Amino acid sequence: MTKLSVNINKVATLRNARGGNTPNVTKVALDCEMFGAEGITVHPRPDERHIRRSDVYEIRPLLKTEFNIEGYPSPEFIELVLQVKPNQVTLVPDDPSQITSNSGWDTKNNLAFLTEVLDRFTRAGIRTSVFVAADVEMVEYAAKAGADRVELYTEPYATLYPKDPEAAIAPFVEAAKTARRLGLGLNAGHDLSLVNLNYLYKNIPWIDEVSIGHALISDALYMGLEKAIHEYKNCLR
Ligand SMILES: CC(=O)[C@@H](O)[C@H](O)COP(=O)(O)O
Ligand SMILES: NCC(=O)COP(=O)(O)O
Asked: How many structural domains compose the chain?
């Protein structure tokens, strides 16, 4: 069964826009769980443009589903994750100045670094996931580095899907088969939406978890959060 983890970064973006506590990010996280989300994802970026470190500490003890923290493994990020101990940590290769995640790891050229970081989280009992492009070699080196899972960076799929679904999905099926062959768990995320999610799922039904934020929160502005979560879960059947 493919689980839906709701990324609440953009709820924090709205909260931060006025400097107060509306919308209440913690309440939204708990409501997402009540509406059927099977996990909550946050990406506490160094500039705290949306999710703040304080959000991470506040949310952690209250969640009933899975907590996934994404980020670049800086010393500060590693310390935060080891203190909070989420169910899963997802390593992304983002530079602090990036507007959003726009690439997967070069797991081959970062093998030693990733191996050392992943080992620290593994020893702390935290499931690890490495954000990679749909590239067989990048998946293979994520396995070599000791990751429990890979998360396929799905922006290229989302961009090409409307023009050519079969071409869009092809590299992702190959990368997903490689992950399965190597015994890696499989996540996927970035720019997934109600337009493209079901086709991804139908072609790669063994995905463990999709983490979706930007499109889901945008859809919720029109249909409401509860209906949005139900609609996204309906794409995973
Ligand atoms: C790793 C990934 O693809 C998403 O978590 C993305 O990083 C979202 O970050 P923003 O919400 O800051 O765009
Ligand atoms: N890992 C992807 C994620 O958490 C959310 O990405 P997006 O849906 O905001 O593009």
From this structure: 1
